[in-house]
Amino acid sequence: MSPLATAFRAELAAVLGDKQVRMIVLLALVLYAVIYPLPYRAELLRDVPVVLVDQDGSTASADLARRVDASEAVALTHLAPDMAEATRLVHERRAYGVMLIPDGFERALLRGDQSPVALYADASYFLMYQRVMQGAAVPLRQMGAEVEAGRLIAQGTPRAVATAQVSPANQIEVPLFNPAAGYATYVLPAAFVLILQQTMMMGLALAATRRGPLPGHPVWRLMGRAGAWLAIWAGLLPVYLIVLPVLYGLPILGGPGALMMLGLPFLLAAGFLAQLVAALFRRGEVVQVVLLALGMPFFFLSGFAWPVEAIPAHLNALAQLIPSTAAIDGLVRVMQMGATLPEIAPILWHLWALAAGLGLVVLAVETVSPSRPAAPDRGPTAPSDSPAR
Amino acid sequence: MLAVMAREIRLLPRRPALAGLVIVLPLIMLLVLGGIFRAGIPTGMAVAVIDLDRSDLSRAVTRMLDAAPELTVTHRASDLSEARALIVSGAVRGAVLMPQNLERDITRGARPEIVTFYDNQHMSAGSLVARGARNAIDTALAGLRLSVRQGQGEAPVQAMVALQPIPMQAHALFNPAFDYVHFLLAALIPTVLQIIAAAATAYAVSLDFGPGRHPRVLMRMAGGILPAMLGKILPYTVIFLLILGLSDVALYGWLAVPLRGSLWLMALGAVLFVLASQMIGALAFVLTRDMGRAASMIALITAPAFGFMGLGFPREAMSTLAQAWGAAIPGTWYVQLRIDQSLRATPLDISSMSVLWLAVIAGVLAALILAQLSRLARQEATP
């Protein structure tokens, strides 16, 4: 058998035949797919609880409260007599905002003065803050526009002119992709790519720490191994990035062809990186812990959840060496945003360059130190050799 | 027990893998995470303008967009499909369309549309772009409304007041600077430390309690299995607490995150949190008696823990199952305590609940470990 085929079969056996590696790869798929998305199943934040402190107690303040309560984003669930009691409710996390309508609200409006309303939103939770602000701002603005238009009409301005003067243009916001602003739709596609990379690297690095010596030139051995990775993960890639998203009802705009084209260099780069991690840390236990700890930093370095514009340049340059950075960007654009391969050509080239570069480094490492001591009880060439007692 | 602790500390420099896991790895994580979020708020995100009007007004709106801190106008697209391609390829994060005859229609009172398109798949960036564009266009239109009123002979101050009959005074509770570093970093560091503490403790325990090792020597040294186990765990508790303390010095000192609450409550919470995280690792190991399987178990519990803490998507909006799962993880309560005591200055009676939960989790984990250890001891006694 040629060295290439030997290496291919040995790697298949190392991944699929080793109980621990198999467990990481397959169990991780099932459990991550179930546990990770669990918090996000609700998708949308509706009716965020807000406390109303109505010090005016007038018709106008009741009207404003009704309008805010009717918004989709917030609900006025609690009434409090003063700010102290309202703040206490926010501290207890029973509400995430306070709307304070001050005494004299209606009087000021009738007099034609400015009549401010105060909104306190819990900014320690970004999403809650946004929803509370959104939920109150729109009705407030609407009521303000009606009041301004009413005053103009009272001064004798024709109704149509008054409306145009209050709001000269119609501002429309159109979210492209994820139009409902669902949290699962936003975070899961990127997270699935990262989980795929981390579990693949964990499995392959573990297999690499247990690999025995094989015959043939390092080039053939590496190519044989890479072939085995592709054979296994070519099946898992569509499961993670098509089947799981469909199960969770996420939008899919990309086809399997484009997925495979991007997936090929991504899988190769992640596989080569796993070899380097294994060569660096040697012990299977250490490799697992290191890759486990790196998951979160890798995710935030990818520039997906935390915009790349806010990542310092030198860290961002470093992040480009991690396959998931380019892969998350490219795969989300292709699968969720319907980008064509020519539109994301730079990302595709980036991944190929990464795969080639990492491949060469692995080759160099394995050529320089070809006789790394193998774990005697695991190597396929020494199946029954156990250490002396 | 002290003898075991002394031995553990003496052995640490001779076990480079373990020393790397408990000291070097967490420090690198601190540096990387601190580096990522140091900039605070994202600024200067690229947007395209589709200006079909080419009037003074449309140019004014473009200038306002470019002046918004969130945005930079980097591209001019000639039509919608060009703008869409720019967004899809990632060149820009949004586009603002100003239709033909915008200025003319506005002066005629025909209320034309100004449309902002933004990439909401990248929701964090997309919502910032939408907000920046909304404010910029509002400012441009307010300028226009002001000049109309002044043209009708109103005094500038009076006109300004008339523009906004019901102004909203927005206050950001607990986080006035509205800095993301505050809550992301305050949660990410414990998340990563929870992973490392659990995994490294499992590894340390495996070195003495694993197959082929001799825990009896250790037990004789300490005079029982409980002190032996404590002697193994406590040295690392100290190390992880030091690292947590270092991260706090960095957060509250260097990054100037406000610290408004009780330091003592936070310290108590930190001790319970580190112990509980370590015991997840110890329990995983004594249950599986195999580092590989223990690592998978730890991964299952600690790796997805961040999502359950509710910093991105709030806990209150999760399903009951997800809330319960999150409640069983020590990090959830510790992060809540940190946010309560650093940012929110929560009254102590409310915040003590988090500490109580941490104590309950730590107690249950300790009981489970002891039960399993005595089961194993019985098994060895009766072969």
Automatic annotation (TrEMBL), chain B:
It is found in: Cell membrane. Coiled coil: none annotated. It is a multi-pass membrane protein. Keywords: Cell membrane, Membrane, Transmembrane, Transmembrane helix. Gene3D superfamilies: abc type-2 transporter like domain. Residues 22-370 form the ABC-2 type transporter transmembrane domain. This is ABC transporter permease. The chain crosses the membrane at residues 17-37, 180-205, 217-243, 263-287, 294-313, 350-371. InterPro entries: ABC-2_transporter_component, ABC2_TM.
